[in-house]
Every structure is written in structure tokens, then in C-alpha cells.
Amino acid sequence: MCVYYNVARYYSFARTGKDYLDIIKRKYPVTENFADSDVVILHQEPHNYAAIYEKYPLLSRKYVISVSVWEASELPEAYKRSLAYVQEVWTSSKYCYNVFSKYHPKVVCIPYVVERDLACSQADRDFVRSAIDHQTKCVYYLNITKAWDKRKNLAGLVRTFRNYARAMPNARLIVKLQQSNPGPWHSDDRVTVLSGPFTDGQINALYELADVYVSPHHGEGWGLTLSDAILFGKPALATGYSGNLEFMTRENSILLDFSEEHIRPEDCFAYFHSGMKWAYPNEDDLGEKMVELYENHESTSIIKMVNRAREDVKLFSSDHVQHLIHGRLDQILSS
After folding, report:
1. Residues 6+ apart with CB under 8 A from 25
2. Can you tell me the distance from the alpha carbon of 77 to that of 88, in angstroms, rounded to the nearest whole number?
3. Cβ–Cβ < 8 Å for 194, 172
4. Could you report the per-residue pLDDT of 250-297, keeping only the tens digit for each?
5. What is the spatial distance between Cα 228 and Cα 2, in angstroms, rounded to a whole number?
6. How far apart are CA 247 and CA 310, in angstroms?
7. Greatest CA separation for the chain
8. CATH 3.30.450.40 correct for 122-315
9. What is the residue extent of each domain of the chain?
10. Is 3-113+317-334 a CATH 3.40.50 domain?
């Protein structure tokens, strides 16, 4: 069997696609010409597969797998139309599996690989300390996000942090945006917004210097920044909903209460609309748990929780994911 793997440049897809591709190469030949392949893997959002098939009609004679995620209760119409072209869907979490299975007969759960280089240099640490005006007396909450992505609920995080600031006089919120222009998000004495490109080492230093990672999201297909924070040994505070539950539990993380609701009109964007549902985290619960971690993030119980989380994510090692990917490709080959 020969595999052709096409992955989008979008960061989370590019990163996880590299992990999957490296695993596939351990057993199967990979070609750069899809015409020579037996299996074609499209690791990109299925916005318009019709256009791809029209441009490359030979695809209709291949076994095509779509690798994708979705972060609300229903798929958009564009996804439904696109997935009708493919023989199989791979998705990262049980949450996504349940969503995609409503619309496609063959869905396989292939989790992300939770492994990464954690190294950073002293220069990286010094850069980040300067960028955030690091002070040893302060407790730092970190969130890495995109300002335009309403699904990440950055507005709710900043609002809640400011509402509970009096109970956390030495707390600081660090928001690392993945784009150069921070838009309406401006730093103040308590909230530092970092924008523009960081090197891998600088991102690693940011995780290292943080005390807590916080994500009051509406929905995640997986939640790479959360699993990364766990690798760095940080307490993870996140909405108890969607794909992050693949690796987060009440025993290894702090999960926020929420209500599952139709997406509110003010939160609709791109392919997310009010016919879908996602989570609305309880902001009082968020504030209270941030205060609790402010006071206890170095306690024995929190350290024990963090250590358990680091053990639990070993389930998503490269070797484990390899077993799943190779097993599935073996089944395709034998069918």
C-alpha cells in the first residue's frame, strides 16, 4: 500500500499531520504524487471537497480518508457535502466521533500524539520574562489563542479575570495571540497581550514560566494547548466539555461547570450558527476556580493532580497512536 498525505498549513493541522505522517512512514511508503497512491489522506477542513475532486478526477478511484475535527454539536452543510465524497473519516476525540458519525457511516477515532520538545534556552526565558514583566511574587495564568475565534471565549476569560481581580491581587493573565495584530485586545496592568511570532523555544519558555493554563472554551476538537500545558506540568483549568475530555478528567485537571446551549447570535461566525450547540462555561465557577488555584497552585493536592495528568497523557504516545493508525491501514489493505 502506498499513501498520499495532504495536510493544511493551519498550525494545529500541520503539527498533528506531521505526527501522523511520521507514523505512517514507519510502515508504509508515502508518495508525493497522489496518482501513485492507493490511499489518499486529506488532512484539511472539508469546506469544498467537490472542487478538489473536480480538479483531480482520479480521486474518485482512490480510497480517500478525511482527517478533520469539529467543535459544535452539528456539522455545517459544507462539511456534510464534502464528506459524502470520502470513504472514511479520522477524527481526534470521542466528542468529534459522535458528531461526525451522525453524517458519515465510517468514522475512526485517532487521537493526537501528546509528545513535543519542551526545551528552551536561557535567552528564551529572558525574552519571555521581559515581555511579561515577570515578577516572582505574581501568579501567572496563560491562554494561547486567536482573538477572532469566538469559540475560544477570550472575552469571557478576560471579563472574568477582571471581575475577580480583587481576590487575586498578585495574579496576572497572559494572553498569547497567534496573529500579529491584537485587534481590540489591549494590555493593562493585570492583563498582558502578546502578539506576533514567537519561536518554539519562546513558546516553551512561556509555558514554563506560567503557573496555570486556563481555557474557558465553548468547544474543542482536542485542545492542543491544554495537552501541551499538561506536558509542561501545569495545572489545566478548562471547560468540562468536548474534545479535551479525551485526556482531561476531574482527577487530573480542574473542569469548569457549563451549560450546553444553542450558539447565541452574537457568537455565530464562519460555519458556526445558531442551529448548533456548544458549551457556555459558568463564569462564576471560572472566577472561583481561578481564585482557588491562585491560593493553592503549589499545594500538595495540585501537584499530585498535575503528576497524574502527565501520567494519563502517556496513553497518547506516538507508539500508541502508531498502533491505531497502522492497525487501521492494515484493515484497509486487507479489505
Report:
1. none
2. 18
3. no
4. 999 999 999 999 999 999 999 999 999 999 999 999 999 999 999 999
5. 32
6. 10
7. 63
8. no
9. 3-113+317-334, 122-315
10. yes
